[in-house]
Amino acid sequence: MRSFLYQIEQRQRISLKEVKMVRAWYMDNDTSDQRNEHHRNPPVFIDLNVLKDVSGVEYFQLNLKTFTTDGTLDKIKRERGYTYEDELTCSKECLENYEEKLKIFYKEHLHTDEEIRLIVEGSGYFDVRDINDDWIRIEVVPGDLLILPSGIYHRFTMDNNNFIKAKRLFIGEPVWTAHNRPSDDIECRKKYVEKLSKI
């Protein structure tokens, strides 16, 4: 693990000036309030290239003032075959049994389809497992579009602001089934692991 993190640090030195940094970092093992940042000591941040290599997660930054007219979102939708979208707001005011819902969102799971989120307002965290099964926390804020590949183990939590509004994109009519871990025998999981091992 130490050599693996060393490689990450070396790659970041090379790519720091080339790639926009999104706030993503390796998590500690503290099980206290999930809405805290949960950095390691010292913190271990990673950039977009490393994030994609070790997890398959893709990131795009959109201009919320122009994305409906400048074609950037339409291009992504067209290239990836997204044909359905809706919006979801999460807050103490919008969700009954808010604290219980947070626990459900935070349960580790996977989906058989990509998970696509464009953050419109507020903020939160997506946690994803990397190739070594370590947790990476990804902070999402307005303008962030995150694509989690099918088969990746992940979870979501609000941050301490307790508010987020996101646009959800789907291929066809949304079929949103969460397969809690362990789900290693599901075909999409096998394909995900195989693909990641070749990167």
Walk me through what this model shows.
By secondary structure, the chain is α+β, with helices and mostly antiparallel strands. The chain has one domain (2-197): Jelly Rolls. Helices cover 25% and strands 29% of the residues. The chain has helices at residues 2-15, 48-55, 72-80, 98-105, 187-197, and strands spanning 24-26, 58-61, 84-91, 109-110, 115-122, 124-129, 135-140, 144-148, 154-158, 163-170, 179-180. Strand 6 (124-129) and strand 7 (135-140) form a beta hairpin. It is globular. The model is unreliable at 1-6 and 8-20 (pLDDT under 50).
> Could you say which structural class the secondary elements and strand pairing correspond to?
alpha+beta
CATH homology superfamily: Jelly Rolls
Main pleated-sheet profile: 5 strands, antiparallel
Total number of helices: 5
What are the defining features of this structure?
199 residues, Jelly Rolls, 4-stranded antiparallel beta sheet, alpha+beta, 11 strands, 5-stranded antiparallel beta sheet, 25% helix, disordered N terminus
